[in-house]
Design goal:
Length: 314
Amino acid sequence: MQKEVTAFAPASVTNVGCGFDVLGFALDDPGDEVVVRLNGHKGLAIKNITGDNGMISREIEKNTAGRAASSFVNEIGFKEGIEIEIHKKMGLGTGLGSSAASAVAAVVALDALLETKFDKRTLMKFALEGEKLTCGGRMHADNVAACLYGGFIIARSVDELDIINIDYPDDLYCTILYPHIVMDTSDMRRILKKDISLADGVRQWGNIAAMVAGLMKKDYKLISRSLKDYIIEPVRSALIPGFNEIKNAALDNGALGCSISGSGPSIFALSRSGNNAEKIAGAMQNAANKLGVENEAFISGINKAGPRIISKNF
């Protein structure tokens, strides 16, 4: 029997309205699975990828999971052969951290396969090397951190790699409406303004601080007041068909707040229970359907655990 490990890593919602590149949380579903196994040869090889419609590179250094794995084995000087299988369980370019999930699943699986027992901060460093591919070389840690650490996170710094888990209400739920269009992360960064006004900056910083306080105090009214984005959403929402109608449908049906997940096109809404999340999902889908926007919805609590090992054969 070949020695192998399969790991799952979850999707994530980042920015969370006001917190561009610094706030994020993990979802229960969807997510990606990565299998790593020893193969008796030398070096890394990607053996198979499913669910990508042939869109993802099979070259190690051009694949987020592959580059993360390469960073891992180079760090420890491991020379034996390892083959990788990547099973994409969510669409590409969804704004739900698909590339981050593959990178995280790869390093978590390798850590179990090679029994290195690295801490999360070290695994984060490897996974971020893969995430560089999606953002033109500039690292942002929110997706990887939310996926790897689980729960609700603040990515205070990438340079110093400072990730903080924060408390949040146990009954907080997320509804995701994913319009079936692809939005490239690098392109969605290029369209952003390079400068913002001091007034917009002050409003945004106030919302970030109040959002964190609202989560930790379990103050739903404060969360709702703070989940507003004056800087990123106005630019990116223009490229998402039906965004305003879908957002208004969520808010009209009890959402605490609604905005773009990551770079889009997925739209997320927070609510206080699974029943509310279901109601909001129906309203968001109805709004999208009326506009002829093909879509699907996901409902999830906040995933506290992050990635997990699905199977281990050795």
